[in-house]
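Objective 1.3, modelling of assemblies. Example input:
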Amino acid sequence: MSSLPAAPASRPISDRLAKRASRHVKERIIEAILFAAAAISVLVTLGIVYVLLKESFVFFSQVPLWDFLTDTQWTPLFDDAHFGIIVLLSGTAVSSLVALLVAIPIGTTVAIYLSEFASPHAREIAKPVLEVLSGIPTVVFGFFALLFVTPLLQRFIPSLPGFSLLSAGIVMGIMIIPIVSSISEDAMRAVPMALREGSYAMGATRLQTALRVVLPAAISGIAAAYILAIARAVGETMILAIAAGMQPNLVWNPLEPAATITSFIVQVALGDLPHGSVGYNTIFAAGLTLMIFTLAFNLLGFWLQRRYRERY
Amino acid sequence: MSLAAEEIALIRANIAKRKRGDWLFTTLGVLCLVIAFATIAALFADMIITGWDRLRPEFFTAFPSRRATQAGILSAWVGSVLVMLVTAVVAVPLGVAAGIWLEEYAPNHWLTDLIEININNLAGVPSIIYGLLALGLFVYSFGLGQSIQTAGLTLALLILPMVIVATREAIRAIPQMIREAAYGLGATKWQTIRDHIIPYSMPGILTGIILGLSRAIGETAPIITIGALTFIAFLPPSPITDTAPFLNFEWLKAPFTVMPIQIFNWTSRPDSAFHQNAAAAGAILVAMTLAMNALAIWLRYRLRKNIKW
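Predicted structure (tokens):
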């Protein structure tokens, strides 16, 4: 035995173990690659923040922030340029409000119906069909709003112009129904059965149970659904760009045409602006405003959803 | 006890009233569902009826034209296919890899939390913001131009959260004992993932990929922002060539248009003849996204039915 030469310390003891060692290196490399893929999502966020801040910084070095917030005119491409973001915010707010007035009542009713009243079979069919609504391309919804819904509305409101926040908002609201209904329904279905049974045992009907027991118990999940719906409405682009017109008016009347933050960005992007001009930087300032709003709504929504999850 | 009869009648009336409430709400619920379904039906019917005359084979083989009746969607659907190709090639490996890392490797610390919160937030970012990202970063900083590769990359980033979430959900449904059995036979972590986790979660991952692509194919806003042209009467260079190496990547840098942009362009013209074209192209686009959605729903259904761990 002692006649065998001693193996150098660095040499592996057997071939199988040698393979093991190389396998270990390979495992590390693969893990590193997978981690890099996950980390890319953070890079995307950093990229968004970087681009928006960098171009907005150039914008705000030419346009005072105070003017941006208080001016009541939005004419960034005219010689006499005004940059009052409030004009675009009013269009965004009015169209979102119309959308929510459609989506929230209908979406909530559908959620209550599907969660508390409908048979499992009906629910199995209704849910995927509802999801179709959110799968239809928004450019098609825009076409539908402009050439089907607007003429339909003009029969009831003859003074309605060809472009209006009302018709765009209604179609946007219908598109958002599945967001409200499916998240609210999940929240209501997570309410423990014992609460419903207790309510039925006291002699309450389905409706009473739904409205006074299940709905309050699921309220934070439902609120999260509403907030995600708001975020979606504020960020919606093509329906508004097509059906709401692109005139920057300071409006509070949904019967008028107006531009929103998103439709303004589309309008400028279509116009082939030279890179580095004020107009070019303006869309990033508008985008930053939009990002701040949707981020706030999204964070609020996630916070509510998480809070509600911990309750049961 | 003559009062009892009256009381019973009162109670019965009360019960009847409350049952009517139930009935009324059921009607209301069905009505709300009908509004949603009627919108889908009206939209689809409107597209097909308006665009019916244009839904002919020539529509697919003609370039856009100034004459509405001769215009087609050749450059648009070819552009859509090529952009989707780039999107899938970028989003699928990245999304699946990220999903695997988060589900199988992620240690329990702040970095993981940061990535998770970040992915949730990205899912809520409006698509036009991705367009601004692409314009500022891809077009001007990286110099990728207003090209197919820029559009494909942008849409890939847009659907990345969807692919990641679907991958994670599919992986989470695989019971721990599968992994333990693989480890017990001496497999390494990656062998377990490659030979067991990925194949078993494939239907779920595919569902996410298809839903993501069906969203991407209908997205307009992020592509308008990077400056896609709206009138293109030529095709990008062919990806396959006669001479070696038979593959050509020039098409990645080509200007392009896609279906939603073509629809937007036709919709925003005042001439109603172009609206017919928009409706026809819209019907095709809706049919495509619906087909993809149906495939995803079918996959999910099959998945739920066939696998019993």
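Residues 207 and 300 of chain B are 7 Å apart (CA to CA).
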